Input
Amino acid sequence: MIARRSLLALTLIFAFVCTPVRAADRITVSQYGIIVESLPWAIALEEGFFKAQGLDIDGFVGGNGGGTTIRNMMANASLPFAEVAVPAAIAGVDAGLDLKLIYGGVNNMGDLAWLVKKDSPLHSIGDLKGKKVAFTAPRSTTEMVLRMILERNNLDKDVTIAAAGGIGAGMTALDAGGVDAAPFEEPAFLPPDKYRVLFRVNDYLPNLQWQVGVVTADYAKAHPDVIRKIVAARKAALDFMSAHPDEAAKVYAKVWNSTDPRFNDVLARLIKAKYWAPDGFNRAGLDTMLHGMTIVGALDHPVDLNALIAPEFQPRRR
Output
């Protein structure tokens, strides 16, 4: 009898120890804490907007972009939702994943610009004729926007463009004289006595939606309330950023481990430019992105956005 009781006790203890305790969920966000686009998510966590929606979310799964983010999302069985670049979302669908687009993340390219050296003889985009210009990597967003801008200025056949391997590598090539211009995401963070802006992407492509929220169709159907709450938490973060930019900058400083006071000015410009899309989609901006994918060879077929966008999550306009 005692032996049986002991065995029962051990069995219950074993069952208790081995029963998994449900951990808090994590959201997959491409390049979280690296690119400024992901700032609303940091604010949603730091300011308690997930908790306000009744969501148990305690952090994020990042990724280097592209297929990495989609793979991280699919590996997250408890919450297969992510914010990713449009090419990654389309590639996932083409690979057979049943994904739905929930919202557009951004409306434009923010502060992305092509820089030249301070003493460069180039002063306008027209001066690039016969010159060599860097972008980050083949089929990257920087290649897309560079090709579209050159195309719109009838310079696509007169400018040599080259993949540098990254933003930092492009600036190194510029310093060494290997290229005449190179891209940089936040020119305000660079020494003004060393570089200057040749052109900003927003001056030529003011309407470009390159980031979207996605979820598996099965999860969207089974848990529509969770998706709506996630989007609502993000929207609350955007409202907070507009109303309290100084506090939002403090979250940036904490998550990005940066004490550069110039970010306050950068954030103010991004908010004024309506960089972050609050909800729904900017269809013209998506069409521009799809065109960019086509001209760099990342897309070779029409995309039916109506079939990909989940209508039940779109805001009702009055």
